[in-house]
Design brief:
35% of the residues lie in helices and 15% in strands. The chain is an alpha/beta fold. An 8-stranded parallel beta sheet has the order 1-4-5-6-7-8-9-10. Strands 2-3 form a two-stranded antiparallel sheet. It has a single domain, classed as Metal-dependent hydrolases (TIM Barrel, Alpha-Beta Barrel), CATH 3.20.20.140.
């Protein structure tokens, strides 16, 4: 197990307002990451003003129709948000992204309404995970080609009626499928998680240059879809293929910034700061680096950006697209 780096690196520019646009709380697979755990990680010096809490398959109801069981997760997230608003300096889950089975097509509407009834002030969107790769080394959460399915697309289109966004979670090899979806349904705001996860394991191991070429061409094309925004983060996951989780000493922000800067700078160049937002992806990325360190890396990458550009990247873009209010309690 890697040793902690947090006690030797302090938060840079602690006054800079941050909305963490993507993190989780969960109890699953014998592991727990609670509100207390997140606040402990996030309370290490950065000015975390608000967060977006994203679905991860936790706390589903154990009874009732299958399509309604994810409502239990939203119920859990809403309770965490209320507890955070009353008791914490960090406003956790100012925005909530839940799960609904988008294969339901038009029948997804009552499920969306139920999510919004549970969390009327905070519920902002749906994520239906669609990662797919034919190689067993990669985790597939769906079958090939789901984004083109007619029922799935009808459900995505239904989100516009409720002013909900669609969080897209897929691999870099699937970006073309997301481009087709965005062009077919331009009325729905699509927010791409983890810059579409440029892969570094399985058949992609040792092929970073080739992967970057494929990824960058697709990202540039995706950026022409005005309804799409992108989350900058997610490199701490094992799918990225780095050895950070295996080291005795965890990486510092200088090293991480040098690795991720080419990807993030490319996204910012193509999408612009008004469609880019930073995310911690904790606790998934916690296995590779500390919370204080990853936000320091983001700050290092953007040190030459203007004050307005940095405000957008660290806070304002997420707050605008997810329609957040730091004052929620």
């Amino acid at each position: 197990m890697a040793t902690s780096f947090a006690d030797t690196e302090i938060a840079l520019e602690p006054e800079l307002a941050i909305c963490d646009a993507h993190h989780h709380l969960w109890v699953r697979g014998g592991e727990s990451y609670s509100l207390d755990d997140f606040v402990r990680d996030a309370g290490t010096g950065h000015n975390i003003r608000s967060t977006v809490l994203v679905e991860c398959g936790t706390h589903y109801w154990q009874e009732g129709p299958a399509e309604t069981r994810p409502l239990g997760e939203t119920e859990f997230f809403e309770s965490a948000a209320i507890a955070s608003g009353r008791e914490r300096s960090i406003k956790v889950a100012v925005g909530i992204v839940g799960h609904a089975d988008l294969r339901l097509g038009d029948r997804v509407a009552p499920v969306l309404e139920a999510h919004m009834a549970i969390s009327p002030k905070r519920f902002r969107g749906i994520r239906h995970q669609t990662t797919y790769d034919a190689d067993p080394a990669l985790r597939s959460t769906t079958v090939k080609g789901l984004l083109a399915d007619a029922q799935f697309r009808r459900a995505v289109a239904c989100l516009a009626k409720y002013n909900l966004s669609y969080d897209a979670w897929l691999y870099h090899t699937q970006i073309d499928e997301l481009i087709d979806l965005a062009r077919a349904i331009p009325t729905v705001t699509i927010i791409l998680d983890h810059i579409a996860a440029p892969l570094g394991i399985g058949p992609y191991k040792g092929k970073r240059s080739e992967v970057f070429q494929v990824w960058s061409r697709a990202i540039a094309e995706l950026a022409t879809c005005a309804s799409v925004a992108i989350k900058l983060g997610g490199f701490g996951s094992l799918r990225s293929g780095y050895d950070w989780h295996e080291r005795k000493t965890r990486p510092g922000s200088l090293e991480i910034a040098s690795v991720i800067a080419p990807y993030f700078e490319f996204c910012i160049e193509k999408f612009g700061v008004d469609r880019c937002m930073f995310e911690s992806n904790f606790p998934v990325d916690k296995r590779s680096y500390d919370y204080v360190v990853i936000w320091n890396a983001f700050k290092r990458i953007t040190q030459n950006y203007s004050r307005k550009e940095r405000a957008a990247l660290f806070h304002d873009t997420a707050a605008r697209l997810y329609r957040l209010s730091d004052k929620l309690e």
